[in-house]
Amino acid sequence: MLKILAFIVNIFLIAIIFLKIPKENMGLASFATKSNLLGSPASAQRFLNIGTAVGILIYFVIALQLNLLNN
Q: Could you say which of 14, 40, 52, 70 has the lowest number of CB atoms within 10 Å?
Protein backbone atom coordinates (compact mmCIF):
# COMPACT_ATOMS: atom_id res chain seq x y z
CA MET A 1 0.00 0.00 0.00
CA LEU A 2 2.80 2.40 0.87
CA LYS A 3 4.58 1.65 -2.40
CA ILE A 4 1.47 2.53 -4.39
CA LEU A 5 1.03 5.76 -2.44
CA ALA A 6 4.72 6.59 -2.96
CA PHE A 7 4.30 6.05 -6.71
CA ILE A 8 1.26 8.37 -6.80
CA VAL A 9 3.15 11.06 -4.86
CA ASN A 10 6.10 10.69 -7.26
CA ILE A 11 3.88 11.22 -10.29
CA PHE A 12 2.20 14.20 -8.57
CA LEU A 13 5.58 15.83 -7.86
CA ILE A 14 6.78 15.27 -11.41
CA ALA A 15 3.61 16.88 -12.79
CA ILE A 16 3.96 19.88 -10.49
CA ILE A 17 7.61 20.33 -11.42
CA PHE A 18 6.68 20.34 -15.11
CA LEU A 19 4.05 23.01 -14.44
CA LYS A 20 6.61 25.17 -12.64
CA ILE A 21 8.50 26.07 -15.82
CA PRO A 22 10.36 29.40 -15.42
CA LYS A 23 8.37 32.49 -16.34
CA GLU A 24 10.79 33.54 -19.09
CA ASN A 25 9.69 30.40 -20.96
CA MET A 26 6.07 31.53 -20.56
CA GLY A 27 5.14 28.08 -19.27
CA LEU A 28 2.93 28.82 -16.29
CA ALA A 29 1.77 32.24 -17.47
CA SER A 30 0.78 30.88 -20.88
CA PHE A 31 -0.96 27.88 -19.33
CA ALA A 32 -2.87 30.03 -16.83
CA THR A 33 -4.09 32.51 -19.42
CA LYS A 34 -5.11 29.90 -22.02
CA SER A 35 -7.01 27.71 -19.59
CA ASN A 36 -8.63 29.25 -16.56
CA LEU A 37 -7.88 26.04 -14.65
CA LEU A 38 -5.50 27.46 -12.04
CA GLY A 39 -6.75 31.04 -11.94
CA SER A 40 -4.33 33.93 -12.12
CA PRO A 41 -0.60 33.24 -12.50
CA ALA A 42 0.10 34.50 -8.95
CA SER A 43 -2.50 32.21 -7.36
CA ALA A 44 -1.38 29.33 -9.56
CA GLN A 45 2.22 29.84 -8.44
CA ARG A 46 1.13 29.89 -4.78
CA PHE A 47 -0.95 26.73 -5.25
CA LEU A 48 1.94 24.94 -6.96
CA ASN A 49 4.38 26.00 -4.23
CA ILE A 50 2.09 24.72 -1.48
CA GLY A 51 1.37 21.53 -3.43
CA THR A 52 5.07 20.93 -3.95
CA ALA A 53 5.87 21.44 -0.26
CA VAL A 54 3.07 19.11 0.86
CA GLY A 55 4.06 16.50 -1.71
CA ILE A 56 7.69 16.57 -0.62
CA LEU A 57 6.73 16.19 3.05
CA ILE A 58 4.44 13.25 2.24
CA TYR A 59 7.19 11.69 0.14
CA PHE A 60 9.72 11.96 2.99
CA VAL A 61 7.29 10.40 5.48
CA ILE A 62 6.53 7.50 3.12
CA ALA A 63 10.23 6.99 2.35
CA LEU A 64 11.01 6.91 6.08
CA GLN A 65 8.22 4.40 6.73
CA LEU A 66 9.36 2.15 3.87
CA ASN A 67 12.95 2.36 5.09
CA LEU A 68 11.92 1.38 8.63
CA LEU A 69 9.81 -1.51 7.35
CA ASN A 70 12.71 -2.92 5.32
CA ASN A 71 15.14 -2.93 8.24
A: 70
Q: What predicted TM-score, i.e. pTM, was given to this entire model?
A: 0.67
Lowest-pLDDT choice from 6-15, 37-46, 49-58: 37-46
State how far the Cα of 6 lies from the Cα of 1, in Å rounded to an integer: 9
3-state secondary structure of 20: coil
Are 19 and 48 in contact by the 8 Å Cβ rule? The answer is yes
Average pLDDT over residues 8-20: 85
Contacts for 62 with CB less than 8 Å, ≥ 6 apart: 2, 5, 6, 9
* Integer angstrom CA distances of residue 39 from 26, 31, 36, 52, 66: 15, 10, 5, 17, 37
Distance CA 62, CA 71 (A): 14
